[in-house]
Amino acid sequence: MDVPGPVSRRAAAAAATMLLRTARVPRECWFLPTALLCAYGFFASLRPSEPFLTPYLLGPDKNLTERQESRPDRLLVLKVLWNDFLTCYSSRPLLCWSVWWALSTCGYFQVVNYTQGLWEKVMPSRHAAIYNGGVEAVSTLLGAIAVFMVGYIKISWSTWGEMTLSLCSLLIAAAVYIMDTVGNIWVCYASYVVFRIIYMLLITIATFQIAANLSMERYALVFGVNTFIALALQTLLTLTVVDASGLGLEITTQFLIYASYFAFIAVVFLVNGAVSVIKKYRKQEDQESSSPVTTS
């Protein structure tokens, strides 16, 4: 057995020093994120006004007893939110635009999330050059240009808004159907661009119409509810159509369902819009017939 000499001792010392230096690197790398997390936890838990809240609520000008103050303030908040919810969605124009907003956003997310799979089936990337990223960029740019043109559209949205939503939803359904059935990648690209332009144009109009029927304090409530409904429907649609625990359909069948989904939206708003227009014109005719005729 060899006894380690001075050279081997120096080599061992150098190796130990190197190990210590390398061991310090992770600690130094983790120090800043750990410090930031600790600081975030500290300030997130810091509630400087909490000790003064109870004395404030129990003050003589608030007319609250200690027993009343100990009940949740959340019940009051929920009651206010529920009343605001009923007030907002009792407006028929806001309800119609919100329903379209939620339904179409659900379908839009599905098409955008799974269109890459459809394109891969139409034109596999391993066999030819693909331009998926360029198409996404072009569709976004053209959609933004279309949004800027919204201000130049002159139409009575209160009268023809639902019919416009029906027509545009039908065009979206046609674009998705063409993407699904035509085996040409360039036609798929063009249909996708049309699909995104129409959606971005309409979602801007819908957002404006919803905001026009709301007070600023209720924006978060209505758009939060609409977004929640859209995501809930998307989750249900994904579990039913895409997920293996559901139907687990092929990508082409999925897009056929998405096209049918937008066609269903178009039919619903067509019927609803037609009824609304007929009622409005009948009301105008009744008002004109009931108004007194002045004679000289």
TrEMBL record:
GO biological process terms held by the UniProt record: pyridoxine transport; spermatogenesis; thiamine diphosphate biosynthetic process
GO cellular component terms listed in the entry, alphabetical order: plasma membrane
Main location (coarse class): membrane
A GO MF term: thiamine transmembrane transporter activity
Topology with respect to the bilayer: Multi-pass membrane protein
Family indicated by similarity: Belongs to the reduced folate carrier (RFC) transporter (TC 2.A.48) family.
Protein name: Solute carrier family 19 member 2
Native source organism of the sequence: Sciurus vulgaris (Eurasian red squirrel)
